[in-house]
Model the fold of this input.
Amino acid sequence: MRQNIELKTSRRSFWLWFLQRVSSVGLIIVLLVHMLAWHYINPPELTHVEVSKRLGESIFFATVEALLIGFVMFHALNGVRNVVYDYFPKPGTRKIVSILLLVVGIALFVWGTFVLFRLVFGG
Amino acid sequence: MVKHSGIPYYTKRIAKASLETGTFAHLLHRITGLLLVVYLFLHMGVISFTYLNGQTFDDLMATFSSPLFLVLDLVLFAGAMIHGMNGMRIMLFDMGLFTRRQKLIFWVMMAIAAIAVLAAAYLLGTLEGWW
Amino acid sequence: MVVLRILRYDPAEDGRPAFREYEIDAIPGMTILDALIHIKENVDPSLTFRRSCRSAICGSCAVTANGKNLLACNTQLSDLKKKRIVLEPLPGFPILRDLAVDWGPFFDSYRAIKPYLITKSPSPEKERIQSQEIRKKYDDAAKCIMCSACTSSCPVIWTDGSYLGPAALTKVWRFVADDRDEATEERLALVNNEKGVWRCHTIFRCSDSCPKDIDTAGCLEFLRRMVVWYSLTGRV
Done:
């Protein structure tokens, strides 16, 4: 049975694939900075007081953490989306999951940076 | 006409195909990726919720410094290394390099990951005075 | 003595596909196709399979043998190095009968990517000339015999039939790389979506299973880099 497949350009699909690569490179760099800054070069004691003090010292630490949350959140949830797209070909399921992942991603990013900056500016 | 595809078929077939290097790498990438997502959620949840209360945070950090959790940290590092090195392998292909040498590149990347994990284990053991 | 374990399915009878075993005396040099023809002629005339040229150029006889997609006509029984050979119809496509699958979905996606030369400039007096260097660029992709061994070996196809698959995408690259073709942007726009290049996870089963040794995954990556470049410069 002949079926005509409709192929419409989706710039979003390109950007998601491309940003997955960009975020992976960003992730490697930021993760390295994170490990060095928190666990190797002059590491603070892992207590609430010390960690808060370190975050308050310079905006640099919080910025690194915020970037880390951003990159990792995009990379992780887009990765999950890729897996879901493989196993669930129904357009409806895909749409619901995509929206759900987007909402979860934004919510967690906002929550993470909120907690972070509350400590920077002494909450 | 009978269907010869779908998730039950996939599971049966992929188990056999996983003995091939390319498929093995793909599955390994997928599984480590999903495990890292689970870890990410746990990590963010636990840290951010206790962060607002100083005492709980300190107690938690003390628990995470116990040998059991340090070994789990090493497992996490291994997972991240496997995912990261294989990710770099995929990016090499995206740049048009070594597509005819993918099997060799996989084992090279895994060797690098193994060396990194062993080095990390050695470093951790030295710092904690395990040997 | 070799045992051929063949997945049999007859649409006229109720029931699921089931394996049936055939013992045959393997002569040195006997191919899988020879063995199938031997069974059909001497043991079980109801055995159904596709074949035509017997010289690895028509692309009709692709089957799954011991989990790998290959052409039955250019694989000898001794190449598989096993006394038991499991033959199944190509995965991912519906089974019509025994080893014959319904290639409808395969050719649907092939047709969707416009597998023909598109020109816009007026025809020159003689032919459209192409340099040897440019012909060499897509030599690999042009070897394709459309046996569907690559597309059906792709795990993405097994669960998501809407993916165009490596064979169709390699064909896109074949025309994109051809400088006589004048529809590059149109072609790249066709594959820049969730059915196209972005569904590939570089699992390499396509390259591994190609009987013509085409670097299918490599061709797909070439195509993907072009879509990336055209997207970034705002042309797709």
